[in-house]
Amino acid sequence: MNAVASHTTDKVKSRPVHGYPMADVKSRRLYLARWVVGALTAFLLLLSIGAHVTSNADRPFADLSELTAALLGGIGCALAACASSGRLRVAWCGLAGASLSWAVGQSIWSWYELVVHVSVPFPGLADVGYLGFPLGAVIGLAVFPSKVSRADRRRMTLDGLTTATAIGLVSWATVLGAVVHAGGTSLWATAVSVSYPLSDIALLVVCVLVLSRSRVHRVPLGFIAAGLVLMAVADSGFAYLVATNSYVTGDMIDLGWIFAFGVLAFATLAPGATSSESPAQTLTVAGAVLPYIPLGATTVFIGWQLATGRNFSAVETVLAVLIVLLVLLRQFVTVRDNRLLALALADREAELRHQAFHDQLTNLANRALLVDRVGHALELHHRDRRPLTVIFLDLDGFKAVNDTLGHSAGDELLREASARFREVLSDADTLARFGGDEFAVLLEDRSDYLDVARALLGSLMAPFSLGGREMSVQASIGVAQVDLVDPTPTVVELLARADLAVYIVKGRGKGDVLLHSPGMQLEEVDDVALGRALAQVLVDKEITLAFQPIVDLSTGRLDTLEALSAGRSQDVPYRLRSSYGWPNATTW
User: Fold this and answer.
1) C-alpha to C-alpha distance for 278 and 216, rounded to whole angstroms
2) Distance between CA atoms of 499 and 493, rounded to whole angstroms?
3) Residues 6+ apart with CB under 8 A from 161
4) 506 with 514: CB under 8 angstroms?
5) End-to-end CA gap in the chain
6) Which of 329, 354, 386, 537 gives 569 a disulfide partner, CB atoms 3.0 to 4.6 angstroms apart?
7) 338 vs 152, 341, 579, CA distance in Å?
8) Given this model, what pLDDT does residue 53 score?
9) Which residues have CB under 8 Å from 572's CB, separation 6+?
10) What separation in angstroms does the CA of 580 have from each of 203, 376, 562, 564, 588?
11) Which residues contact 270 (CB under 8 A, 6 or more apart)?
12) Which residues does residue 565 pair with via DSSP β-bridges, in sequence order?
């Protein structure tokens, strides 16, 4: 019964609505809802512009429009969170919470001004809601999906400190210093007043750092950054006007808050706003330059102050020196990280080069490296007549070890045999695993190549301990030598000579050394050539066959037919003799 109910429930959940799956229907509804919020926000911005430009907006309109803008921004971010997943959902939830916290503070402010008709207490509960905005916004920006390396994180930290110091210097010279010097009714009131511009500085710093590392969400983050800049301008202007007792509700500074939340609502409609894609991200050229924009602006501001004859305060001087030190430290860290990166790349390149030219099992040179060194040695022979020798080794009995003890024992045999071969060779000799159970050695400028080959063969005399058992393995060794007076062969020709000598040794009984000599070839090659020649002369009718019966005299029965041939062809013997008969027949 439970299984039937579960199956029915699954069918209901996945049932399409109006031709769309349930997931698509939910996405479309959230998308349309965000656009409705965007349209309402645009309408509110137009009304606010008209009300503030013509004349200062009245108090009810100003308070309610700010509250509505914060609610629309929070709802838009909440809808974006519902349409997202993972860290991106947490990021939009943080921004939604920040906007709604500000809306709570604005509700309290409006209650005092529009309902109770008394001055808003400062500091008070409204400030708690307002200051919740930077906390939620920082959380939202910090968790935006991104992947950065440890080196990038160090540079971003220094960039953040530099940006914060630069913005702090400008803020102190324009707003923050005036707020601190104006003081307040209490230390707590002064701290709350200062917390507004300081929180805005923190927001701008985090936003700059996020923009400098993000690729996928750069468009929505650009809108969010624009909203935070407007929020910082509005907060700083408000703090300055309050400190000078010149703020009135409905002032032009209120447009900063309205547009800040309006741009935040528009950010949820930007391309990629709900895309959870998060590839590995690094600092781009634009991202590397972005943190220096506040530094440049600060430099211009300092130049303007000097040009107008304004004196630097002690705080401004300390901040300016700190900026210079942070920039120097940033350059030092960048140079050091680049150097470490270059060393890491060089090590990785050397590792890849080693893997490309060495056998992973035995760590010997592989076929590619051996062929390259043989080619180089042949070039030296052609130019300077320097002798060289190639030795091929093929282990006898390797297949039996693999079949009886397993491939792990075979691998151990190859590693131990490689170690034994190294012991009888000099550092100038090239030992390579040519493939499977085949090894090759390149000797340059050595005349004792046969002694080396016998030493290699002798190194295998002692039994191998494999898988708890002792196994004896020998090798067939072929040697191809290029002397001073010999014409220079190609790489393929030289390797083929050594390979041919190995196969001849195997055909003669294995476990021996053979030096290749001119005219050497396998007996199987002779048989193949003879067979081709015989087939051709039969087709051309250049030989004739006659069958001579052989009778068993004791029984009088036919025992064997002997084929006799005669012909004029020079490619086959004049007379061939073979026997054909019954099972008791013998072949000559």
Assistant:
1) 7
2) 10
3) 326
4) no
5) 86
6) 537
7) 11, 5, 83
8) 76
9) 530, 533, 534, 537, 543
10) 102, 56, 6, 11, 10
11) 219, 220, 222, 223
12) 545
